[in-house]
Structure formats: C-alpha cells, structure tokens
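Give me the fold.
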Amino acid sequence: ALTLSQGNYNRLLVKNDRIIEAVFPPNAMGIKRDEQDGSVYVMLSGLNSSFTLFLTTESGRHFSATIQGEESLGKTIELISEQALAVKS
C-alpha cells in the first residue's frame, strides 16, 4: 500500500530500471513519464477512494500497489524488487 499526495505530484521510480507501463482505473490519476531516467510523475485525480496501480519495467519486473491519497507534499517513492533483496548463501 502507498499513500501519495492528493494535491501535488509524486514521483515513482525503480532503481536501475525504467518504468514502461502503468495500468490504473480511468480518471484515477494523471501520469507523465521522465524519458531521461525512466521514472514517472503521478497526480491523483481527487477521488477519495483507493485503487490499484500496476507497473511494468523494462527488465520485465511487475509491481502492484494499493494507492490512497492524503493531504501532504509530493513524495518520491523508490520501488525495490523482492528478487533484489534475496541474500545469496
């Protein structure tokens, strides 16, 4: 679950990867891609209900998050793949 700013842009990124696709309900948010670093800037539409956001990266990773808005400044959220956290024995 992610809580994002309701009235400001929020930045989502995946370390060492590029977000290439975002799927979410129509009119739930606006999105702008940063072609330089592969991150996305999102602005929630003002709907007070939560929704699910699905992201796909250039290297084939998939992320999903339940998005909810709050009154706050914009946030930068870095998503990390569980595979990247695996410890080798």
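The helical segments are 82-85.
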